Amino acid sequence: MIPGTFLSRRMLLRYLAGSPLLAALTWTDIWPVDLGSQEGPELFPSALSDLEGTIDGLIASADKAINVFDFASVAKKKLPPAHYGYLATGVEDDRTLRANREAFSRINLRPRRLVDVSRIDRTTDLLGVDHSSPIILAPVGSQKGFHPEGEIAVANAARTQRHLQILSTVSTSSVAEVAAARGEPVWYQLYPTSQWDIARALLQRAADAGSPVVVLTVDLPTSSNRETEKRLKKMDSRDCTACHAPGIQGYLERKPMFEGLDISRLNGLLAPAMTWEFVDRLKEATSMKVVLKGIVTREDALLSLKHGVDGLIVSNHGGRAEESGRATMESLPEVVESVQGKIPVLVDGGFRRGSDVFKALAMGASAVCIGRPYLWGLAAFGQPGVEMVLKILRAELRDVMMFSGTPSLGDIRRSHVGMA
Ligand SMILES: Cc1cc2nc3c(=O)[nH]c(=O)nc-3n(C[C@H](O)[C@H](O)[C@H](O)COP(=O)(O)O)c2cc1C
Question: Is the CB of 141 under 6 A from ligand 1?
Answer without folding.
Answer: yes
